[in-house]
Amino acid sequence: MAAPIVAGVDVGSTTAKCAILQDGRILGTSLSPVGVDIVRDAERSLDAALVEAHLTRKDLAFIAGTGYGRYKVRFGQLVITEISCHAKGAVFLFPKTRLVVDIGGQDTKAIRVNASGEVVDFAMNDKCAAGTGRFLDVCAGALGYDVSELGALSLAARKPMKVTSTCTVFAESEVQSYLARGKDPKDIIAGLHASIANRSLSLIQRVGIEEEVTFTGGVSRNEGMVQALNARLGTKVNVNPLSQHIGAIGAALFAAERAAAPDAGKVAA
Amino acid sequence: MITCGVDVGAGSTKAVLLEDGKRLLATTWLPTKGQTSVAAKTAIETLTRDANLLPDEIASICSTGFGRYSVEERNLQVSDITSSARGAVFLHPAARHVLDIGTQSSRAIAINERGRVLKFKMNEKCAAGAGRFVERCSKYLQVPPEDMGARACLATNPRTISSVCAVLAETEIINYIAEEVPVQDILMGIFMSLAERGHALMKNVGIQPDVVLVGGLVQSAGMVEALRRTTGLEVHVDPRMHHAAAIGAAMLAHMRLEKTRGGTPSMPASGRGMA
User: In the structure, what pLDDT confidence band is assigned to residue B264 with cuts at 50, 70 and 90?
Assistant: First the structure.
């Protein structure tokens, strides 16, 4: 009998990600925005990934939900925290991972993991927008760019500016005053990335710096942010085109475990 | 002898003229708009004109507030904590605790009967609990800042809004708007979030009555009501408290002159100020 087909749906504060897996192979993924109707957005996320995999919901043996909006994945049979899912997903894509840095739309986490992809320790900032994707979003707005343009622009920076405000609201004013003084937006953006890398480092230091680091979450798609983190950590962090989907992949892996051993008890917290 | 106090804040610039350290002759305020020196100059010129004075009739000018070092006309400068404390006692002699909510920072100050600072705690790292947050909410809710307070007082079911992060609070507000929560319930939630943050600072310093509110939100009935609900304290309110720091600065300018009795005030920008 073929291995069961499973899905993981990661409903974040800003985007929903879905991954469909069979026997450790990724059959389809999706990435879509999250708005006010989270239940509907979670459904759309699943359906988009099914379309890519040429499958229907009937083909799925098990669905797991994760992320900030995981309780809105009403069609799922399992709910797991995104911390467990990022750990599992990161070790799946990069087996030597011992530290996961997840920078999402509304929170940032540093997660220490073992070789089996289990969480050893973690630290997070989910109280404040400083150092999150939201910080970049707001500052991109002040600069008149879309957040997706920031990475490429910052790579062309010549003299990164120092952004001293931790608070997103004050950083936005700081960006505006730099612009008013005629500073190059590219240099300002590089400064924003460095500021987030600094902020991440303080979280990372709380769990301990580990040898192999995997960068996950939406902000990991920003090449300038990857470089800033590399510079701050003095290492080369793992990134993958599916870095943003690592939480969904992790959820799908938990779903696969559950599908294979339905009576094996609780999979994860 | 007439002295002038100029309080250059992140949001607005306030200035006053004081005679003999006792009588308030004139007050003015204008938005700072990021131009600290220009705002201060304009404020001083306005006061001089309103009071029918010649510029050299002002014996000394003391600046305070975040932009105090850019006031070219100043003879001395003091921190806004020192000046708010002095000004609060000038306007309300029984004041022993000052909550000062500014555009970009907020502070709780314990003071003695002479208006000297005993202890203070401030938040300047984050926009939560500061006036800037209220300004942004005004835009989101499309309620002019001056109307926010009165409308908040109509709230029947105030909603909880994060007092930790102004940006995440905005998301909460947008969600409430989407859920069609009445505007007044959101507004009161906003003021309660500020009050909660202010109360945390106040408790840290230690609360002694009378408590006075200082800063631009003194005219906001919603802010005062939210403080009452959150702290359970009677908060003394006086619209002139918007100028408390400027008044305190003018008082300190007068005291400095008294000390150097009869002599001309020190030259501009000399000394390190009083705080």
Answer: low
What's chain A's Rg over C-alpha atoms?
Answer: 19
Q: 3-state DSSP call for residue A75?
A: coil
d(CA B87, nearest CA chain A) in Å: 28
Q: With a threshold of 0.90, does the pTM exceed it?
A: no
- List the domains of chain A with CATH numbers: 1-94+245-269 (3.30.420.40), 97-239 (3.30.420.40)
Q: What angle do CA B136, B140, B141 make, to 5 degrees?
A: 115
Q: CA A214 to CA B25: how far, in whole Å?
A: 65
**pLDDT digits 0-9 by tens, A152-175:** 999 999 999 999 999 999 999 899
- Asked if the B2-84+244-259 domain carries CATH number 3.30.450.20, the reply is no
The reply to whether residue B126 touches residue A170, judged by beta carbons under 8 angstroms, is yes
Looking up tokens 């609360």, which residue turns up?
A: B207
Q: Do domains B2-84+244-259 and B93-237 have the same CATH topology?
A: yes
Domain boundaries, chain B: 2-84+244-259, 93-237
From B104, B136, B168, residue closest to A129, measured CB to CB: B168
At a CB cut-off of 8 Å and minimum separation 6, what does A242 contact? Answer: A19, A26, A29, A93, A249
Closest CB from A13, A134, A167 relative to B126:
A167
User: pLDDT digit string (tens) for A230-268?
Assistant: 999 999 999 999 999 999 999 999 999 999 876 654 444
Q: Which CATH architecture has domain B93-237?
A: 2-Layer Sandwich (3.30)
pLDDT over 90, % of chain A: 87
**Tens digits of residue pLDDT in B164-187:** 899 889 889 988 998 899 999 999
CB atoms within 10 A of CB B122: 16
